[in-house]
Amino acid sequence: MESFFSEDMRVLVQGITGTQGRFHTRLMLDYGTNIVAGVTPGKRGGEVHGVPVYDTVEDAVRRNEANASIIFVPAPYAAEAALEAMEAEIKTLVIITEHIPIRDSIEVMSYAEKRGVIVIGPNTPGVIVPVSCKLGIMPAHVFKEGVVGVASRSGTLTYEIAAELSRSGLGQSICLGLGGDPVVGLSFVDVLGMFERDPKTESIVLIGEIGGNAEEQAAEYISSRRYPKPVVAFVAGRTAPRGKRMGHAGAIVMGETGTAESKIDALKSAGVDVAERTSDIPRLLSKSF
Question: 141 catalytic, yes or no?
């Protein structure tokens, strides 16, 4: 699927010597991800779980031909890490870090667009191709190989719904968390385009939440293109009070925009089946098979 997890993907971990970087590097290696290098300034010459550590992304790329990176760098420094990776010709970035300053995120996304870089996140659980590879922090045991593509604004709901699908015998082709911060890289529209071109993906689940207009944009895209693959959606936050952030920094209703109702109405108008409960999703999907 596009550049995700091609056979020649070679991953580096920025922030590999930190608690989270070290822990999740072990889990990603165990799942089969081809992690070739780590980067932590000042830690050159060390290793984490057999992965060599370098001071700079440039050095890690030059010595190991890395072409993707996952970032576990703290928020004040995460944008600098992302820009360093892009300058070193990394083309796929997964930014796990949450609460990156909005101005920093805008700078990262602007530079990524100029460089043709795919950015997943920030504040994302990552992306997984079941039984193949994962770049992220998701609990791998709930995912099962199959033909359902999942794109989500919520990490926890990604796991819950993937588990529901797997229990119902509906495996996943790829599951991707867009990220819960106000400014993120890939959008629902971007991922819908990728899913449309992916021969392994036969149907799609979109997991939305209050705040922003990503779901409304997805509905417009589906409607205007007469989207050829069946789409089921779930929107979290139906009872959320206005003006109060719910969980994610991007999950907040301001004025009349960003409500669950407006998102559900837009999706239904585009012909998308919208689940009332997460447990309804397998039943709604089964109608497309």
Answer: no
